[in-house]
């Protein structure tokens, strides 16, 4: 029989339950398919589009030909099934609201089974539940239950040279691999992901607990992009971490668990992808995005730590976690804009853009998410910089106008006798805006 393997965010050969199921079912042939889904406007999402194009080219090379088509999955997948005579379609389960809608439509349009095996998580969203069957709302008890659940062992890789691949004709052209504005993208693909992971594990994991909050050291794993695109499975990472006894390894497991927690929350509350998790916050008074929003996007707020983060995002499609928190707080509590505006910009520019992590990361900062940081805890854009980037190394790396400023003054260039002429003055008075944010919160 012939099996169709419909790849999505899982272009890898190792630890891949769905691919193994397809190979087991397709003794006469396995069709390796990728659908460039019309739902995603890859011209608008150019950073992600370029990374995806690189991933597709890499995987095409690894298996000696991936069949790529463009269109709507509920039309294209049944068409390829008819053309190849496939008896089953295999996928890794998707868990975003869109992925679930899409897969339901495809299953309905098919007259062969759509078989979902595995997920992009160690424990699939929707699995960790309280005794009464409902979902958790707070991380710590969820984390204990998740740990108790335990992850399975990674599966052995599939050897692509032993698979009877079948390709139905010519592929559609791939999107451009050129990143917009010369964004410096990370290496794409499974081989790069595993090499990067092993090197990081050897060099940094044991210091992760102490160093993870320091953007100047830049020693976090940068595995988010590989996890987002499924070129590595978290089970693989957890199995490696289990071999180590350091605090760093435990701290890293906990961060991986946050990713699983947010996916679980989104699964339980699909409306929280674009709406408020705590709905009361819909009623707060917000401003409309205008010139301030543009200054924030371009890293020209006049707050060096904030601007460094926003410029790293423009340059690399990635930002350190502490910066994501600081710039998000600035948007919501200094500029008084709704979190959704900032979250949308992140989704457009991040190469690791992940709906669950991003929307819930934003809502956590905005005070309207799970485990919400109390609203009155407003990040101080200068204090954060002084604490997390004590020498200003991170700021000087990303804000060239301030490279000539020595010492801690780099955190407050407006206090210099002669501030750099090409760097803007602070957009707002933080102390005042903090009070304004609290006033609006109280009024709500
Ligand atoms: P490491 O510190 O090396 O962490 C290892 C892995 O753990 C990460 O790759 C990630 O998968 C997971 N992780 C770490 N911290 C978090 C966290 N706070 N929440 C969820 N998972 C976490 N992460 C994304 O993957 N995509 C996003 O679009 C995204 N948007 C965010 C937006 C905001 C406002 C905030 C506050 C956080 C966001 N995060 C997002 C979470 C976090 O910032 C990134 O996962 C992390 O910075 C990625 O870098 P790293 O791989 O070097 O992280």
Indicate how many domains the architecture comprises: 3
| CATH class bucket of the largest domain | Mainly Alpha
Kindly report the name of the CATH homologous superfamily of the largest domain.
DNA Cyclobutane Dipyrimidine Photolyase, subunit A, domain 3
From the N-terminal CA to the C-terminal CA, the straight-line distance is 62 Å
* Annotation field: number of helices: 18
Cα shape: globular
Arithmetic mean pLDDT = 95
Report the order of strands and helices: EHEHEHEHEHHHHHHHHHHHHHH
Keywords: Chromophore, FAD, Flavoprotein, Lyase
Protein name: Deoxyribodipyrimidine photo-lyase
GO molecular function: deoxyribodipyrimidine photo-lyase activity; DNA binding; FAD binding
Cofactor: FAD
Structural commentary:
The chain has three domains: 2-119, HUPs (Rossmann fold), CATH 3.40.50.620; 121-151 and 190-268, Serine Threonine Protein Phosphatase 5, Tetratricopeptide repeat (Alpha Horseshoe); 279-443, Orthogonal Bundle (DNA Cyclobutane Dipyrimidine Photolyase, subunit A, domain 3). It has 18 helices and five strands. The protein has helices spanning 17-25, 46-63, 73-84, 97-109, 139-149, 190-203, 208-211, 224-229, 234-242, 247-268, 291-298, 304-316, 321-334, 339-349, 355-366, 381-388, 393-398, 430-443; strands at 2-7, 29-37, 67-71, 88-91, 114-116. A five-stranded parallel β-sheet has the order 3-2-1-4-5, with helices on both faces. Helix 1 links the parallel strand 1 and strand 2. The mean pLDDT is 95. Bound molecules: flavin-adenine dinucleotide. Flavin-adenine dinucleotide (FAD) binds at residues 212, 220-224, 227-228, 255-256, 258-259, 262, 320-321, 324-325, 328, 346, 350, 352-354, 357-358, 361-362, 365. Keywords: Chromophore, FAD, Flavoprotein, Lyase. This is Deoxyribodipyrimidine photo-lyase. Its cofactor is FAD. InterPro entries: Crypto/Photolyase_FAD-like_sf, Crypto/Photolyase_N_sf, Cryptochr/Photolyase_FAD-bd, Cryptochrome/DNA_photolyase_1, DNA_photolyase_N, Rossmann-like_a/b/a_fold.
